[in-house]
Hints:
By secondary structure, the protein is mostly helical. It has eight helices and no strands.
Amino acid sequence: MVGTGLMFAAIGAQASSAHFSGLVTGLIMSAYFAGFVYGSFACPAIIRSVGHIRAFAAMATVASALPILHALWLNPWFWGGLRFVNGVCLVGLYMVIESWLNVVATSTQRGKVFAAYMAVSGVAMAIGQWLILVGDRLGFVPFALASVLFSFALLPLTLTPVNEPEASEAPRLGLVALFAVSPI
C-alpha cells in the first residue's frame, strides 16, 4: 500500500513533467480504477485456481515490475495499460489479504481486525505519497522505490506459518438482486 501511494504521486509528477494534458493524466490515473473493477471479477477465479499464496505472489510480482516499466518508457498509452494491470493486481492483493483476515479472525474480533487493517492501509497510503520526496522525484528513484516496496509485500504472506484459507466458490449477487435486498 505504501508502493501504491508512491506510484500515484510519482505518475502525477512525471506526467506533469512530460507535459501530458490534464485529460490524458486523468485517463492514465483512471485506468487503475478500471483495472480495479475488472479485477474484482477476474481475480476470484485466479485465487480459486492457484490458491491464496500463489495468487498473492504472482500479483505482487507483477505489481513490483510495473513501476520499473513506467520508468523505462514515457508513453501515455503504455502507462494507461500499466495502470490498468496495476489495478487488477492490487484488487487481487486486497482480496487475498481481506479473505485471509476474514477467515482467521473470529466473529468477535473481526471488526477490530478490519479496523486495524484499514487504519494501517490509510497510513501506508499517506506515507507512500510522502516518499515522493525521497531522491529525484522526476527520475527513476520513485519508480524503483515503489518496485522495492511491492517486492517486500511478498515477505509476510509467503513466509507465514498460518495455513491459507480454503478456496470457495464466491456467491453470485446480481445488480437486480442487490437492489431487492437493499433496505434503501
